[in-house]
Design goal:
10 helices; alpha/beta; five-stranded mixed beta sheet; elongated
């Protein structure tokens, strides 16, 4: 029996120990070459596209440049998915390596080609009651919590996979019908959700309760994807939130398509795509959402506001930042002198 690719030496071309042994300049060089491959790692301003950026790195700080054209600051992660994160570059590289090493987890078809369409329900797990007499049938809709969603996948044989998340399998008919080209043979199970496909495509149906393949119809390709997704949910993620279910399904598609690519090439591909992508609202500010949900509480007045100490100013200096404030700013004497020279108007 041939050895599986993930067990061979060719699949393990990069390890976490190798990343930990890298120097800080080596990690920065990896990100530079993946961020700007056209200029061989030389920075380019993401705002105006100017290729002349002067280094302005501070001691013990990450690499930074100043664009000559727009005078804006440029870093390795500015304008990418890694923007506005304080994690060091080595931690980001280790996180991507751990993601690539974890194995749990267009128009389709055409004339003479076959695609498989199927759905599987994920999330919304309901714990059984402690006592047996209080347990209910969790398969019934009245005993569920409403968080369970259906992942519908269209898989072209020996080609790409397209997943999406829906409330029910029946609401995914347009998702299956529109991207599949005319003349494609569609394989599906005996669920009533796929009955309307017969008016648009040649559909082959199979009853999974009797057999997995009868020589005419087969959905084993879609079921193998669901097997990987369920193993990731129970063994790796442990919890799948409904709002991110489509993201988890897309991750499973990526793992399914790159299961025979070594982890070093996977890491370079993931980091390169993340550095080319713009900042995402889904991956930025997740730690601040809990604070945004609560309205800010007004700060109670204290004696420190009306009676500043000897090192504080007793009145506003007229700076632009304090315009319209009902309370004088509490700058130190040194800070007030610096701001007065730069932004403040004469009192």
């Amino acid at each position: 029996m041939a050895q599986h690719f993930l067990l061979s030496a060719g699949a393990r071309s990069l390890s976490a120990a190798k990343i930990m042994r890298m120097s800080d300049s080596g990690v920065e060089n990896v990100f530079l070459r993946l961020r700007w491959p056209e200029t061989d790692g030389k920075p380019v301003c993401p705002d105006c596209g100017c290729a002349i950026c002067h280094a302005c790195r501070r001691p013990a700080d990450p690499l930074r440049w100043r664009c000559k054209a727009c005078r804006r600051g440029v870093s390795i992660t500015s304008g990418t998915l890694f923007a506005w994160h304080k994690l060091p570059l080595r931690a980001c590289l280790l996180a991507v390596a751990a993601f690539c090493n974890e194995v749990k987890g267009y128009k389709l078809g055409g004339v003479g080609k076959a695609v498989e369409a199927d759905g599987a329900y994920c999330g919304g797990d309901v714990r059984p009651a402690n006592h047996k007499e209080n347990r209910r049938d969790r398969r019934l809709a009245k005993n569920q919590n409403g968080k369970r969603q259906c992942v519908v996948v269209i898989r072209q044989r020996d080609a790409m996979v397209t997943p999406s998340a829906f409330k029910t399998e029946g609401s995914a008919l347009a998702h299956v019908r529109n991207p599949v080209a005319a003349g494609t043979e569609v394989h599906a199970d005996e669920a009533n959700s796929w009955n309307d496909l017969h008016g648009h495509h040649v559909v082959r149906r199979i009853n999974r309760q009797l057999s997995c393949s009868d020589g005419i119809a087969c959905t084993n390709g879609a079921e193998s994807f669901f097997s990987r997704l369920r193993r990731a949910e129970t063994g790796h993620h442990h919890h799948v939130a409904g709002v991110y279910l489509a993201r988890y399904a897309q991750e499973g598609v990526w793992r399914e398509g790159h299961r025979r690519t070594d982890n070093a090439r996977q890491l370079r591909g993931v980091v390169g795509l993340a550095l080319r992508a713009r900042p995402s609202v889904d991956f930025c500010g997740c730690w601040q959402r809990a604070n945004q949900a609560q309205p800010p509480q007004p700060r109670p007045a204290s004696s420190a506001d009306s009676s500043p100490g000897p090192s504080r100013t007793a009145r506003c200096l007229g700076c632009a930042d304090c315009a319209g404030m009902t309370r004088p700013c509490s700058l130190s004497a040194a800070q007030a002198a610096r701001r007065k020279r730069s932004t403040c108007v004469p009192p």
